[in-house]
Amino acid sequence: MVSTTLDPPSDPPLAREGASARAIHWAARLLTATCWISAGLFGLYILAFYAAAIVDGNMAKWNEALPRLYETHTPTATAGIGVHFAAGGIILALGCIQFVAAIRSRYPAVHRWIGRVYVTAAFLAGIGGLTFIAAKGTIGGTTMNVGFGLYGVLTAAAAVETYRHARARRLDVHRAWAMRLFALAIGSWLYRMEYGFWFLLADGAGHVKDFSGPFDRFMAFFFYVPNLLVVEALIRAPRASMSATARWTAASAFTCATLFLLLGTYYFTKFYWGPAILARIGL
Length: 283
Known about the structure:
This protein is mostly helical.
């Protein structure tokens, strides 16, 4: 049986374990809330920019953000990436809701139905991305094809496993796979955030326009592999087994990550995500 620690521990255990336990508890909560809000905003942006362009019949607009996404002579690739964007926006907007303990316990039917939509969208996002790669290939060539292709396979597989174990009522295993799926789902958000920070801190060193530079090749895997490693550590090593020093170290790392994500979220929301969302709703 796989052990997971999706819900924060209760206050009495925190009080007994001391300041380090309280520090990591609140640092983890702040980081989680920041990730949820930021990923949710990015999901709304995806729907407002990419999915809305499909509705408006103006898919050439996609190329304003990334070159060669829409070309009239590749309809299969266009259909695949269109499904990928639409489903990706849904999973980013809905994913966080599934980890709210109050909803799971008080409204299990809501949790189940949102879960069905979530895993279906995640599966379609993976298949849509794979269709695009198979029909057209990525702008970055072989390395990006392999990295993004593996990402699509893992996302689709995690969606299937999350649903399969939920149906079989193997809830601990289901929650572990749900955590893996969420870690993969936020990969597209992290990809943008990490590129944003790299341009801010290193002026885009190692990046070229056709995404074939050394940093681009590194990023073809980095936006999802570390996420999976972190999730596996959380699944297999419950927080209660950590020493006080390890807790303080983790709390400090969580706090630094939260500050970086807050900065990145502010930047992207102000200049990219926010204007697209507001323009779509007519504000």
